[in-house]
Design brief:
alpha+beta; 4 strands; 4-stranded antiparallel β-sheet
Length: about 150
Amino acid sequence: MARRKPRSRRNRGGVLGWFADHPGVLAVAVVAALLVVGVGVAKVIADRSATSATEDRAAEIGRLLDGATPEDFLAFNAGVQREGSIARTVRDQPDFVNVRATADLSFIRFQPEGWWSGFTERCIVARVRPDGVTVAVPKSACVRVEAPR
């Protein structure tokens, strides 16, 4: 009886054959793909959480600034010295960044924090004008949000 030649693992063709011949590379590729998918899922979840949290915080800031006028922030340093002033209340917020005030506009930045802050950047911007307050949530870090001129 003729002896059959044993099949060599190196004779498989195509990409699947190559991966079959190199199981370590296949394992690394699968782990890398799972990591990429995991980071993508975490980014989506973080973005949704960030959107929800910043919208809630923006509503709180809108209520906090209800009735405020630009004059309340013109002399910000003097305003924070007065007990109960809106300037002090704003400055004491944990996510307060800064105020840029003129006679017709006070531009206030808040940088909210949360578990999602490592994946997404958010800033809450309040514009206090004589005719009212508007609060916006640009999808950007506060250092990138330009104050109006």
